[in-house]
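Protocol step 4 of 5: obtain the predicted structure for the target chain.
Materials: sequence only (see below). No template structures provided, no constraints applied. The aim of this step is simply to have a reference model before the mutagenesis design in step 5. Sequence pasted as it appears in the construct record:
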Amino acid sequence: MYILVNRDEDSSVYNYIAQQLLNGSLGHEKWTLAPKNSERFNLLFGERKSTQLDYTRIGHTSGLCQAVNYYRGSERLLCKKVPLVKYVRSLAESEQLAYQWMPVSFIILPEQLKSKSETRKKLHAKYTDERNNLVALSSTLKEKIWIAKSSSGAKGKDIFISDNIEEILAFVDEQTQGYVVQKYIENPLLLDNNRKFDIRCWVLLDHEYNIYIFSEGVLRTSSEPYDPNDLKNITSHLTNHCIQEECSTDFGHYEEGNEMFFNEFSRFLEEKHQVSLKEDILPQINTIVRKCLLGLKEELTTEGLGYHSFQLFGFDFMVDSQFHVWLLEVNGAPASAKSLLPDLAEELVRKAIDPLFPNHNNNEPGNNCHSDSKKCCRPSGGFFKKI
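Step 4 output (structure tokens):
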């Protein structure tokens, strides 16, 4: 019998997987649920915040294969906007190369962070406020729009857009955490009715550090026409699902749930622009994903440790009018589009969980890790493809 501890019940993906494993819906009939505080388990769906997930307590039970659904360090290195900017810069030999796939970005530390808080002192010690460089560059550009994003903001919160750099800085200085001020992509590729979108791709990093991308992605679409002259109309500019649903009276008018999937997007590109999603857009996405994750392998890998990790990431992208792909952010605990959840969950089990805990009747209960995954047919929907 394999033992599951689920401390991540708010996650639509992992809560679904837990339910399927426990009721045997995925072909597994040998899982049992242990209390959240149990230290004897095979599989842990842990807390999303690294400060709550104590990795030092995993992998010390002799003879028991243990795995957790987060890589230690991914949150602080990749999944917050300020560290992501610093990391992307480190991947390149020059700033020019670094910003081939991330908009020009500056790290701004609010004036309030100059207080005596120890946490804020550490932030100042780790990052340099780059407002002078931001102001200098802004004065040389013809395109003036900038977007400010809090380092750990989610669901479209704590975002401010303006073509006045002093207004941007005044906004940031009123906040209580580090911000990224980024050059706004003023020439986005637009859907019918001149609407913006971004692309969410699901990426799986398995316990052997193999990188997989889900074959089906989703475009999160705007309900309002894009208008660069009206920066206050957030539903024209921010395609986050929560903002669109809460603020737009036209939510769901063009696409159900303001979601467009790859098949429809592919037809749109080919019919309107004679561009191929498969040949022109997805290769750029795959390259960015690989650069981001391979560059962190030495810091994230669990090779040689007493436990295994795997993680599902949500990579968010924007495409401009020249069909150039830009990385916006990386989410370390992404939700799934409702219609994709069954396929996404089943494929995650096949790629990340089955190789460690195969459903073999002659196995002793969870005593040894295995490397060969169960052979079975691929589901009839989206699937994880190794890149």
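Step 4 remarks: The two ends are 33 Å apart (CA to CA). The CA atoms of residues 101 and 326 lie 5 Å apart.
Proceed to step 5.
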